[in-house]
Amino acid sequence: MSIAICYYSLTISAIGIAAAGKIFWWFQWQEDFSFYHIAQNFIGIGFAALIPAFLIHSYEPNKKWLSISIVILASILYQGNINYIPLDPNRFVRFFKSTFVYGDIGSIGVFVEIVLWPIFWLLAFKRIASGINKS
Q: What is each CA distance from 25 to 10, 38, 51, 76, 86, in whole angstroms?
């Protein structure tokens, strides 16, 4: 759960930094702001997902898929609970409604990035480890 809190905090920070336009500070994309914002979230959440995936790969290799699933689900719980009481039972519903039902392409992109980046990093670490073990 502590890794999930860390992942939640890092993703919220990455989304906030992207919303402030500070990831690509040297390049201002005026023509397609939605793509620019999605690209910033993609990079920020990608870096945020690297830390929990590395910790799980390093310290929990036997149960890494279970662990990363718990981290992702707990992060979704925290994301859906922003501005509500801590143990609100509607947090999954609220998160899915805010991203898919009422959200735009950027919020759907954030959801996909939050779910898929840790899985991608675990697969990358598995591939790297298998390449090192063959040598």
A: 19, 15, 24, 29, 35
CB distance 110 to 45 below 8 Å = yes
Task: Write down the pTM of the prediction.
Answer: 0.80
Number of neighbouring beta carbons within 10 Å of residue 43: 16
As a whole number of angstroms, the distance between CA 6 and CA 4 comes to 5
| Contacts for 34 with CB less than 8 Å, ≥ 6 apart | 104, 105, 106
Helix (H, G, I), strand (E, B) or coil at 108: helix
Helical H runs in 27-104? 33-59, 64-80, 91-96
Ranges in the chain, pLDDT < 70: 17-34, 86, 135
Task: Give the per-residue pLDDT at 29.
Answer: 59
d(CA 66, CA 99): 24
Q: In the 3-class helix/strand/coil scheme, how is 39-58 assigned residue by residue?
A: HHHHHHHHHHHHHHHHHHHH
